[in-house]
Amino acid sequence: MTLEVGCDIVWRGRELIEGEERLLTIRFIATPELEGLLTKGRLWWLHEGSVLIGEAEII
């Protein structure tokens, strides 16, 4: 399933290095389609345009 959503990714400190893991805060724009998908443990792919830049897990 592909769902394009607006979000804001916030972290403090230096830029991420490829392969590095970090806890981040991601704020999503609330939509009815998104509401049921924000469940603990769910994995997400993060994209900048069409480029995959990372993976995330909801904790």
Radius of gyration: 12 Å
**Order of strands side by side in the largest beta sheet?**
1-2
Shape: globular
The biggest beta sheet, please? 2 strands, antiparallel
What can you tell me about this protein's structure?
By secondary structure, the protein is mainly β. The protein has one domain. Helices cover 7% and strands 36% of the residues. It has one helix and four strands. The protein has one helix spanning 32-35; strands at residues 7-10, 25-28, 43-48, 51-57. It has a two-stranded antiparallel ribbon. Strand 3 and strand 4 (51-57) form a beta hairpin. It is globular. The relative contact order is 0.23.
Give the helix/strand layout.
Layout lengths: L6 E4 L14 E4 L3 H4 L7 E6 L2 E7 L2
Antiparallel strand pairs: 1-2, 3-4
Q: How is this structure best summarized?
A:
The chain has 59 residues and is mainly beta.
Keywords summarizing the entry:
59 residues, mainly beta, two-stranded antiparallel sheet, two-stranded antiparallel ribbon, 1 helix
